[in-house]
Amino acid sequence: MKKLVSILFTVCGISAQNLITNGDFETDAVSAGAFSRITTTNGLTGWWVGADNSSTPALVDVDLCGEGVLAAPSGNATQFVDLNGLERGRIRQDFTTTGAATYTVTFKYAKNRNGGIGADAWCRVFETGTPGIAIASRFLTLPVMSTSGTTDTNQVSTVVSANVWTEATFGFTATGTATSIAFEANNAPPEKASGGILIDDVSIEED
Ligand SMILES: [Ca+2]
């Protein structure tokens, strides 16, 4: 039976495994229509919230958003993260890799319409413990949406649409056995403090 299951998995091509825990942000329950402000103290399952060292200013909190809080569906199921809480924030997760193996990162992002102005963020992959040296990175920037909520499909709007989330994907080659990924709001507080880039469906798979 064990052999049969193994053969079936091989035939069906089911071999890739998501190395990220709680990449869909569904583990910690948030009431529909509400959001929870997350800091290092109250935490987010699988993720470190905050900067990695004291020399990095701010990056203190994010919002875990529940279904309908922005009147639009999330990338996957009901919940997602807004990288700008009361101030700009950052989330990081460490995962195990094989040196010199290649991996693919995928996630979805959108813009919180309540921000009022554009929002920027970084997604960085780095060797654990060296956040200043990126193995690979992507800069995410989305402009302000129109008040009608219909002109930019990259932004969460009052118009419920399947197109408000954009998928990003990129590859990297691991340099060791401990690798990290971080999503970091890039807005300078306080003028762009809340209403940042939204993140959902984070996945990293070995190629
Ligand atoms: Ca989700």
Descriptive report:
This protein is mainly beta. The chain has a single domain (16-206), classed as Jelly Rolls, CATH 2.60.120.260. Helix content is 5%, strand content 36%. The protein is built from one helix and eleven strands. The protein has a six-stranded antiparallel sheet, with no helix packed on it. Strands 2-5-10-7-8 form a five-stranded antiparallel sheet, with no helix packed on it. A hairpin with a 6-residue loop joins strand 7 and strand 8. The longest helix has 11 residues, at 2-12. The chain binds calcium ion. Residues 24-26, 74-77, 79-80, 200 line the site of calcium ion.
Describe the structure concisely.
This protein has one helix at 2-12, and strands at residues 35-38, 48-49, 62-65, 80-82, 90-96, 102-111, 119-127, 134-142, 166-173, 178-185, 197-206. The chain is mostly beta strands and 207 residues long.
List the helices and strands and how they pair.
Blueprint: H1 2-12, E1 35-38, E2 48-49, E3 62-65, E4 80-82, E5 90-96, E6 102-111, E7 119-127, E8 134-142, E9 166-173, E10 178-185, E11 197-206
Antiparallel strand pairs: 1-3, 2-5, 3-4, 4-11, 5-10, 6-9, 6-11, 7-8, 7-10
This protein binds calcium ion.
Calcium ion binds next to loops.
